[in-house]
Amino acid sequence: MKYSLPADFRCEPFYNGSQSIVICSDDKPFERRLLTSYFYYDITEEERPWENPASFLLQMFVLWREREAELRSFFQKRDGKNGRTLMIAMTAVFIDALFWLNKKKVGQLQDIEAAAARLKHKPVNIEERLRFILIKPDSYHSFTQLRALMNELEKLTARSKAMGEW
Question: Is the C-alpha dihedral spanning 60, 97, 131, 7 positive or negative?
């Protein structure tokens, strides 16, 4: 099955606004789909991870830990240009995880920073920090910011789980 990319998701750095992009449904595993078709579940609603996010979030944090070393390697070699694609993918994973933790789907990418700031569970200064990453995803400082945000999100997830919120 093929899906057209909604206009609200045609937003840099994830998708080019002028392209007509189609997202294809196939048998990719969850992690692979997150890395290749950004916001796939939010767009298609084939599956609704935000309704019961526990197992999905754990997989996303494992994915982050696996890919963090790869990103660190790019930036240690001062090769942010080649790390850009993975940084964009992991930023999309972070945004999905942030919204799913709050049991909400990502409804659009236009002004996603402000939408993130309105969530109940979020890292401190999420609007400014996320904007910084989205403006220049290939910089080392964006990588360190994303790493800090993922660590904070994992702690927020553990707290939400301990509080019995899901």
Answer: positive
